[in-house]
Amino acid sequence: MSNSYRTEHASDSMRGRSRVTDTPDLHAYYRELEAVSATAFWKRANEIEPWEPITRYSPTLWRYDDLRPLVLRSAELVRPEEAGRRVVVLINDSDAGRQHTAAVGWLFSGLQIMKPGEITPAHRHTASAHRFIMEGGGAYTVVDGHEITLEGNDYVLTPNGCWHDHGVFADGQISIWQDGLDIPLMNALETNFYAVYPEERQTPLHARDDSPLSYGAGGMLPAYGPAWDKPYSPLQVYRWATTRDALYNLAKVSDGCPFDGHIMRYSNPVTGGWALKTLGAHMQMLKPGLHTRAHRHTGNVVYNVAEGEGYSIIGGQRIDWKKHDIFCVPAWTWHEHVNTHKGEQAFLFSFNDFPVMEALGLYMTEAYDSNSGYQSNNGSGS
């Protein structure tokens, strides 16, 4: 939905905003209210009801070249059975990010590493989770008895409330993936629960990779067996090759979106909606040399560079990126993307809280209509 709350001429001196001039009698009145744990709404109205969203988070870049050696070191210092989950957490460079252990907004993210033969003990939680596989091979997850193999640039679901454990087969490689969860949202709603499985790991109840083999063919669903009736996607891993080919095919018949290039969302093949109830994800392709126009939206986004190199301008700040760098766009912040390579596409994986925004009727977008749709660059964030 486009922004219908245009604020170009907004002023707190306008009728309908708090314009009370305090007097000695009012100050005395305020003290009486405080004594009974109350206050005057007009004292706080303009602050708690801004003209438009004001983010408390900052555009932040996490360079993979900086993070990778630290993530590898964690594997030498801590065992997964001791840590529960051996994750290096990405903290937004803001007071709000540090307070809420958030990458941006109500989104948590971190990098998890597993060595061959290791396992993260089985558990479940209220928070929804998903993972983007960054490197390695021979990794797997078991979600409510479904064993799924994982490879580079795969997108993997761990729906809330599902038992899950992760590991790397003994003949696999050291594997690193990005975790994304809505832990800050669950804590803000005071709805966070956590439980551990009775055993260290689950026993798979189905054939290996039954989920992608049953639901991974675009536009096709099994015509027999029980109907899928759970509130999340039955396709628990979205393979990179299938995702990439879908974008290539889309580019054959479409010029793409002016703000995101060619972009597709990971969807539930049964409903066509988001794969998870509270977390959304996209993969987008930027053609060589593409410079998208700027726009902004409610909701927060965390990006991971699946392939390529370029930069984004976020709130007027240039952030240069290359493969597996991670960066974020806070809510209602202007942003645009540039693929600086003249011969190869760039691919950006991203996850967001858009399903929550849409469910609450709060998702809103706005195009940048100055300077032909491009922001001024306030300097490099590289």
TrEMBL record:
Protein name: Cupin domain-containing protein
GO molecular function: dioxygenase activity
Keyword Methyltransferase: no
Protein keywords: Dioxygenase, Oxidoreductase
Gene3D superfamilies recorded: Jelly Rolls
Residue stretches making up the Cupin type-2 domain: 111-166, 283-347
The keyword Oxidoreductase is annotated on this UniProt entry: yes
